[in-house]
Amino acid sequence: MAHVNDERLTALTERLEKGVQDIFTSGRFAEYLSFMARFHHYSFGNCMLILMQCPHATQVAGYTKWKKEFGRQVKKGERGIQILAPCTKRLLVDEEQIDPVTGQTAKEQMTVVKTYFKIATVFDVSQTEGKELPSLGVSELTGSTERYQEIYAKLVDFAPVPVKTEDFPGAAKGYFSYTEQCIVIRPGMSEVQTLKTLTHEIAHSLLHDPSQVPDQELKKRNEKEVEAESVAFVVCKHFGIDTSDYSFGYVAGWSSGKELDELKASLDRIKNTAAQIIDTIEAEPERTEPEKFTDRVMVIPPKRKMKSVPVR
Q1: For strand 182-185 and strand 163-165, is the pairing parallel, antiparallel, or unpaired?
Q2: Which residues pair with 115 in a beta bridge?
Q3: Which domain holds residue 89?
């Protein structure tokens, strides 16, 4: 198996970093941050409720907020995601106060703030339509590549879990399910988007499977997404497939700041994983040795003489 040149991988990761930095210095990034800041940050419990009802949700908000603030309408027939919304209520209660000098008890009204929860309904962006939302790059890659069938087949063979192609709710292009131990890719995408997405999900399955990674090494979601998309960019770019318009914005969107801490801390993991995938795709198929002919002499047994049988 031929091993990909480390200098080549370093050059590609540097290209990725430079592309993401360019997005940080553009006006698009400020607009994107302003847009994202208008979304509510949900508690862990509500995040779990959203995940269970809509596993592929990315940005959720209430019906009115989508309409008034973002100029988008919830699609007809969409079913909302139910979460718990905290509410507060001020109550006047009588509290008994004991005078420390006289020891007499007197009642005094006090305001008490009580917190309770009610069910609220939110919708994911994929359940809405209308005004275009700010983004850091293209929403989907287009185009084809000459080696599509070969690369796709080798990626599927290399994946540590089965790869399925089927439609699913939400706006995601694909996902790795560690509970079901499979990768699911959305059908009908371009060849370039399909290869990029499949590589991204394979990177997740190699680097972020909780069953394979000790708890103390589990990373936050932004770190996982930066790693997976960086691997996908490097692998695709190596084979002449340019995913810059998608990958640069994706990595920038998941990075915590302009210093690209997630990317820099993961460069070795990104390069090693990308190299592993590239080597697998470039590997020559194993060939069986042709049969060697020798000067052996084939001995043909003599024909048996047939006994004559008298005719009666």
Answers
A1: parallel
A2: 88
A3: 6-282
**What is residue 215's three-state secondary structure?**
helix
Is 177 a domain residue?
A: yes
Q: Domain tally for the chain?
A: 1
* Cα–Cα distance measured from residue 16 to residue 238, given in angstroms and rounded to the nearest whole number: 12
Is 301 within a domain? no
How many other CB atoms are there within 10 angstroms of residue 154's CB atom? 17
Q: What is the pLDDT of residues 196-224, one digit of tens each?
A: 999 999 999 999 998 887 764 677 888 89
Q: What is the pLDDT of residues 73-122, one digit of tens each?
A: 999 999 999 999 888 887 777 777 676 766 677 677 777 778 878 899 99
Q: Quick one: tokens of 37?
A: 């800041």
Question: Do 246 and 196 touch, CB atoms closer than 8 A?
Answer: yes
Q: In whole angstroms, what is the distance from residue 116 CA to residue 99 CA?
A: 33
Whether residue 243 is contained in a domain is answered as yes
CA–CA gap between residue 83 and residue 145 (Å, rounded):
44
C-alpha–C-alpha distance, residues 54 and 58, integer Å: 9
**CA angle centred on 126, ends 124 and 132, rounded to 5°:** 105
Dihedral (Cα; 216, 220, 226, 231), 10-degree rounding = 40
Q: Are strands 105-124 and 81-98 parallel, antiparallel or unpaired?
A: antiparallel
Task: Give yes or no for a contact between 230 and 251, defined as CB atoms under 8 angstroms apart.
Answer: yes
User: Does this model's pTM top 0.70?
Assistant: no
